[in-house]
Amino acid sequence: MNITNFNAFKKRGGLWFVGSSILAKFSGLLITVLLAKNLDVETFGQMTQYIAFSAILIPLLSLSAQDTYLYFASKNDCSLGKKASLLKSFSIQILLGTVLAFFIAVTISYFYTDFSNKLFVFILYSALFALSNLCIAYFRVVGVNRMYSILFTLQNLTLLIIVCLFLLFKFDVIYAWPLSSLFFISYIFMRVFSPRLKNKFQDSKAVLPNKSYVVTQL
Predict the structure, then answer these.
(1) End-to-end CA distance of the chain
(2) 112: DSSP letter
(3) DSSP 192
(4) pTM of the prediction?
């Protein structure tokens, strides 16, 4: 990478993006170490299973809404109003996927008495995490990579801080995941989106993604 390309990369907020990615990896590693040191072997094993379950569930539940949104909303012919409309549309898709996931989980729990109710906690977390990822992706498609990176970093730090607090005060750490996502997404809606963006979202249509978007995801 020559100096010109590096300066262009830096101007687009590339260094912020790289830094946030590194911090996210470090945060995940630190959480694993904290859980291993503070939980018994059986509980730690269950937690790692639930976390792995959510990693699989998030893209399934959202049908990879974030990646599809980034692809279509990043196109040059996609206006700001269209970006907002797509954001609302894919949010509806995630919510409908969440309802379906809960319905399937309730059905399974009805027939299998050994079904763990803690799985419902991570279904909720997966939904909130997918929704928050979709929201912060908006700043990437509008070219505000610095804000995207800051929010991505804040998302990971929120989870790390809440996990530390739950371990410190001996709370059931499993609830740290949905609680952190709930705090983070509340912050996005209350503090990050400016009045101008709020008006833009209010004026945009909220409909299900059309067939072309669904086909691309699959």
Answers:
(1) 35
(2) -
(3) I
(4) 0.85
